[in-house]
Design brief:
Elements: H1 13-25, H2 48-57, E1 65-66, H3 67-74, H4 78-91, E2 94-96, E3 106-109, H5 111-127
Helix pairs in contact: 3-4
């Protein structure tokens, strides 16, 4: 129970009303700060440049490729990230890491395919004739 007035002292109606009005003016405690997370502006469609960027950067992402890592790195939404992972897994660029679950895609980069792509790029660079720049003649 609340504090009782000491013997012989009774609060008047004015004192009670004044105490009640002061309590209502006090600020009430807020339980949360209410911090709102910023809304992400991720892409819903892929254009050709985004596709090329994902195709070149995906092998360099490391040993763990999930929907969330693809979505964060390339700023695409989750459904588009799942479709990209499925597409590159079907093409052989990605291989599943361990047992797969239908809810969580966990993949790694297929090292053999990446090595073959690097070798093809090196061979293409070697086939191109290199032009030598002539030094400007001194006067």
């Amino acid at each position: 129970m609340g504090k009782q007035p000491t013997q012989g002292q009774k609060k008047t109606k004015d004192q009670i009303a004044k105490a009640a009005s002061q309590r209502s003016k006090q600020t009430k405690k807020k339980w949360t700060k209410g911090r709102a997370k910023d809304k992400l502006n991720n892409a819903v469609y892929l254009d050709q440049t985004s596709y090329k960027q994902i195709e070149t950067q995906l092998p360099k992402m490391g040993s763990l490729i999930t929907v969330s890592t693809v979505s964060d790195k390339f700023k695409v939404n989750g459904s588009l990230a799942r479709r990209c992972i499925r597409h590159f897994a079907k093409s052989g660029l990605l291989v599943p890491a361990g047992d797969q679950n239908s809810k969580q895609y966990i993949f790694t980069v297929n090292a053999q395919v990446v090595a073959a792509q690097k070798a093809a790029a090196a061979a293409a660079a070697a086939d191109k004739p290199q032009t030598q720049k002539k030094a400007p003649a001194k006067k």
